[in-house]
Write a structure and sequence with these properties.
Layout lengths: L6 E5 L11 H15 L3 E7 L2 H6 L4 E11 L2 E11 L5 E6 L1 H4 L6 E2 L2 E2 L3 H19 L11 E5 L5 H7 L12 E6 L7 E3 L3 H4 L12 E2 L2 E3 H8 L2 E4 L2 H6 L10 H6 L4 E3 L29 H12 L7 E6 L8 H13 L2 E7 L3 H13 L4 E5 L3 H10 L2 E4 L9 H7 L3 E5 L2 H6 L13 E3 L4 H15 L2 H12 L5 H18 L10
Parallel strand pairs: 1-2, 1-8, 2-5, 8-9, 9-13, 13-14, 15-16, 15-18, 16-17, 18-19, 19-20
Antiparallel strand pairs: 3-4, 4-5, 6-7, 10-12, 11-12
Helix pairs in contact: 1-18, 4-5, 5-7, 10-13, 11-16
Amino acid sequence: MPSPRLRVLVVASEASPFAKTGGLGDVAGALPQALHALGHDVRVLIPRYRDVKEQVTGTRPVIERVRVPIGDRLVEGQLLEAAGPGGVPFYFLAQDAYFDREALYGTADGDYLDNCERFTFFCRGTLEALIALGREGASAWRPQLIHVNDWQTGLIPVYLKTLYRDHPELGGMGTLFTIHNLAYQGVFWHYDMPMTGLGWDLFTPAGIEFYGKINFLKAGLAFADLLTTVSRTYAAEIRTPAFGNGLEGVLEDRSADLYGVINGIDYETWNPAKDPALACHYSAGQPEDKALCREALRRDLGLEADRSMLITMVTRLAGQKGLDLVLEGLPGLLEAGCQIALLGSGETPLETAWQEAAAAHPGRVAVRLGYDAELAARMYAGGDCFLMPSRYEPCGLGQLIALRYGTIPIVRRTGGLADTVEEWDARRGTGTGFIFDDFSVDALREVVGRAVAAFREPRRWETLVHNAMTQDFSWDASAREYVTLYRKVLRQYGARSPRRSR
């Protein structure tokens, strides 16, 4: 007998293709499509940002007035609906004073000063919208479970277990909370506590207080029924002081409820056999034209046409990503017979340093600042290796795309990189990439040296490329893991209250 269809609402502060700043947007856009393909009734709710207003046509109002208590006043919003990709319905919570802005969370000058109020409205507004949606007659819809993501949605599990616990439209609704990056926590001063509508009894080390401040991420960790993060290794790492960002105690206390589920990628979008951005197409069965993509990329970037191993990077220029380590080790990498190509943007000192490196090594180092989706695809296809020397990496999507395109990952053993790349064993012909442990120039040079040595043995390299391209990190397997966890939430909901500590 087939398992019953689930009704799931995915709530996130961003979701591709409508609003995206990083991996959260990719996941919140792709996972619902995979769940829908498995036969489940899944819908997505995000804020209606300015970009959403400008690009989404055909929206229809579902709830004309969503009245949300914010402190001692009511703020009105509206719930709109539109068809999303893959047949997934999307809801947009509209309130222009909060969301009609040039960016999602802040500008180059810093985060918006009212982010606590903005996302308090989003969390509580989501529940008020669901109450109204459950009363809409023939069009009424009520999820069994809410899948919340990152700090911007962290108050939803708290509200469901406190202010809305006995509400007839919301009672018994389970929650699963996913941590995409523990470094971003939504920490605000305690003077905002009355605005949330929550009692001061929750402002304790066992509740949402964090060293005298409100912590939205901690709220989600403490009150959600189950917790996930985006790789098994990261799930273990964040329970330690080195990676826990001050929340390792909370996570250790809830370790029995914490699961690691690897993200997937869209294998239709990321497909070298038909990617329109590529100079030519290739596949695992016919990989020969990948070399033509490499030469086309060299021409695009002004790199020398020779037999060097081309290492590409598509990344944010941030301390997390280890780009400073690559700069420090750059002379050794070039001496080993490599070319380096970087696409990305981020921290100004790193942007400047990489521009200077490209100027100092013309024809050997190429840098393109900003983000260009077509160039990114050409970088994934045209590289021989894809470098990710991250200090930490919850999951990482770059290495998954690189595997799909037969561009061999060189990664540091951390988080999702450790879970998705297998060390190349030349003797057995197994493995998909090269891995190093120490965050040091010596370790980086050594691992790149191993990659160069393998690259100089064409037959073995062909085997390695085939291994990489035949991996399966599509969303289907991850979606099935989430379905299992959703059912676990629904079976166990209400059986016990999560223990909470600092």
